[in-house]
Design brief:
The protein has 673 residues and is mainly α. 62% of the residues lie in helices and 4% in strands. Among the domains are: 165 residues, no CATH class; 34 residues, no CATH class; 159 residues, no CATH class.
């Protein structure tokens, strides 16, 4: 989990590859997939590079292999996959492969011209189809090696090639061992050592089959900067949960869970992996994500007490109609005239206590169940939203500490948390306080949280809306003033600090240069292997050139945009989390409509035994198809996209920049597959 929390440390290494062993070394690195080569010949045309002739020969061979593949398929044969992992062939084998494939291609052209006379020869040629795929893989690897060698520069003595590559610090011993083993075969020695660099290193986050889909969600927004906090470990929990809040239904979640579980259990079958359907591949790559989404939907479905829109009585209800009837003395005539009855929780014995888990099933029979659920889900959405956003702001603390920007803790993180929690955190406090302190006996005079929250910003009071607790107006006015006081700190704090630090460094720079001129090069301390992590990273993201060109107006404008975005975002983002309530309501109502318009009609028509056997089968089939097509696919996709938006916009922008780039190692893995 340590590598998931933050990207691994990556170093820039310089490789000295003797010309005799360069091909072997690069081929070995391609098998291991450890390094990403940097192009040291970016200014050189592709037609002027050292190995352009070898690359062209490989491309001509690829064209020949393509022709042979088409002929084999036209003959109705199936190309078997190569057995095992094929290494890149030695350069001396390229001529042999070229001559053999060209001979096969020419003979196939001759056979196709006079098939009847040369049928026997065609049969012999078809036997070569078994090794056709192997040769094609080897040529692809050889071409990849030469393309990598074209990115190397030549030493002044022309005896070795010099390459630069990014490599994980954890993989440096494996890199050294691979170079040593591959170069010893040619009787020479290849060398790799770490060099300092001012460029931002690429981001490397190792994933497995479980975490890959969640990391993909984060990377779709943007690859994180080097050593930036990675949201993926928290997305593993928060994404399925927010999806389930909108999709909560035991039955629908169970169907999704079983579908994902089937893919997980069959993930090692060759037929499943080899499927070419794009829709299937999309579902298969996200099978573990679907698994958790279904599992969390089952959990929230139990909380909502909904299974295909029907409530279940797992535990006895906390409401008693008999106690209300005995207390009120309802007669048969009264019941005949009043189809709607009210249960008063203040009457002894009517309300026995809360339901052990989730919503009481009696609410599904109540006429005001929609109003009750709307109030519950709306307040729950606001609570989840404020907690989610506050957690994102807290995660920014780890970035500030790691990058040496400790001034941002007091000048940005603290004002942001004060502004967010002072206003909307207080709204969450009001909701929870009212839940805990306002009982049924005081329901008639219960204060309105909405009116209190509006009066909080207007510094006013409504006499008809009683206070929740003593001195409430003073507390609310203090919180508003405190939140507004954070705005100038957030706006001016960081720019003033950067300008002060900039001027202080300019004053110290002449003295530092004199000391550097006096000191010899060998007397300097050891250079950092990765200059970006020690200078740019620890100095708050500004190197010496940027410090020398610091423009106050640009810094102030950037901070003003950040301040306006955060302050307005606290309002809009909190409102955005109400989509949890809206989507949950829409899903519940669609489920109810589908049950009422399909299954309820079918059950009404099928009361007789003979009719039920004929009617219920097609009606249930229609219900099942529409459940999958509308509620699982369409509603599931809608909830997925909304959960994605909440993570990208409302959560990740609090601490995650997403302005990095991935480490793309030179590897033969795609060729082997």
């Amino acid at each position: 989990m340590g590598s998931m929390f933050r990207s691994e440390e990556v170093a820039l290494v310089q490789l000295f590859l003797p010309t005799a062993a360069a091909y072997t070394c690069v081929s070995r690195l391609g098998e291991l997939g450890l390094v990403e080569f940097r192009d040291l010949n970016a200014s050189v045309s592709a037609f002027q590079r050292r190995f352009v002739v070898d690359v062209r020969r490989c491309e001509e061979l690829e064209k020949t292999f393509t022709f042979l593949q088409e002929e084999v398929r036209r003959a109705g044969l199936v190309l078997p996959p190569p057995k095992g992992r094929l290494p890149a062939p030695p350069p001396r084998d390229l001529l042999r492969i070229q001559e053999e494939t060209e001979r096969l291609a020419q003979e196939l052209r001759d056979v196709r011209g006079n098939q009847q006379a040369l049928r026997a020869q065609l049969h012999q040629l078809q036997l070569h189809a078994a090794v056709l795929r192997q040769g094609q893989v080897q040529v692809h690897k050889m071409k990849a090696v030469y393309l990598a060698l074209n990115q190397c520069s030549v030493s002044t003595t022309h005896k070795c090639l010099i390459a630069e590559a990014w490599c994980s610090v954890r993989d440096l011993p494996a890199l050294q061992e691979a170079l040593r083993d591959s170069s010893m075969e040619e009787g020479v020695s290849a060398v790799a050592h770490r060099i300092p660099c001012r460029d931002m290193p690429p981001t490397l986050i190792r994933t497995n089959r479980f975490t890959a889909s969640f990391q993909g969600i984060v990377d779709a927004y943007g690859v994180g900067r080097y050593q930036e906090v990675n949201p993926a470990p928290y997305t593993i929990i928060t994404f399925p949960f927010l999806f389930a809040v909108m999709f909560g239904d035991v039955g629908h979640g169970l169907l999704m869970f079983l579908f994902a579980l089937a893919m997980v259990l069959a993930e090692n079958r060759p037929a499943v992996k080899a499927a070419q359907n794009e829709i299937w591949q999309t579902f298969f790559r996200g099978r573990y994500l679907l698994l958790l989404m279904g599992l969390f939907s089952i959990y929230t479905g139990f909380i909502y007490n909904e299974c295909f829109s029907r409530a279940t009585s797992i535990f006895p209800s906390g409401w008693s109609v008999a106690a209300m009837a005995n207390q009120s003395g309802w007669s048969d005539a009264f019941l005949a005239q009043h189809t709607m009855l009210t249960l008063d929780p203040n009457v002894t014995g009517v309300f026995l206590g809360p339901y052990p888990f989730g919503i009481d099933p009696i609410w599904s029979l109540a006429a005001n169940h929609l109003s009750f659920l709307n109030s519950f889900k709306m307040k729950m959405s606001v609570i989840l939203g404020v907690v989610h956003m506050a957690f994102g702001v807290v995660l920014g603390v780890f970035n500030h500490v790691h990058f040496g920007q400790r001034h941002r803790l007091l000048l940005e993180t603290l004002p942001e948390l004060t502004f967010l929690l002072g206003l909307f955190g207080y709204l969450v406090f009001l909701v929870i306080y009212k839940w805990l302190c306002v009982w049924a006996a005081r329901a008639a005079s219960a204060p309105s949280i909405l009116i209190h929250f509006i009066n909080m910003f207007l510094f006013s009071h409504s006499p008809s809306n009683r206070l929740l607790y003593p001195r409430q107006e003073v507390v609310q006015a203090t919180l508003v003033v405190l939140a507004l006081a954070m705005v100038p700190i957030l706006l001016l704090g960081t720019p003033l600090h950067l300008l002060h630090r900039h001027r202080r460094r300019l004053r110290r720079r002449p003295a530092d240069r004199q000391e550097e001129n006096k000191a010899g090069l060998l007397d300097l301390p050891d250079a950092s292997v990765n200059g970006w992590s020690s200078d740019e990273e620890k100095a708050g993201g500004l190197d010496d050139e940027e410090e020398a060109e610091l423009v106050p107006s640009e810094v102030l404008m950037h901070q003003a945009i950040h301040t306006i975005e955060f302050c307005l975002g606290c309002v809009s983002n909190t409102a955005s989390y109400l989509r949890l309530w809206a989507l949950s309501l829409a899903h519940a109502q669609l489920s109810e409509v589908l049950w009422a318009m399909v299954m309820r009609i079918g059950l009404g028509l099928g009361r007789e035994v003979g009719v039920a056997a004929v009617v219920l089968v097609p009606i249930f089939a229609a219900f099942a198809v529409m459940t999958v097509a509308i509620l699982l696919v369409m509603e599931g996709l809608s909830a997925f996209l909304h959960a994605l938006r909440l993570h990208w916009v409302e959560f990740q922008n609090k601490f995650y920049s997403g302005t990095g780039y991935k480490l793309s190692p030179f590897t033969f893995a795609a060729t082997d597959d």
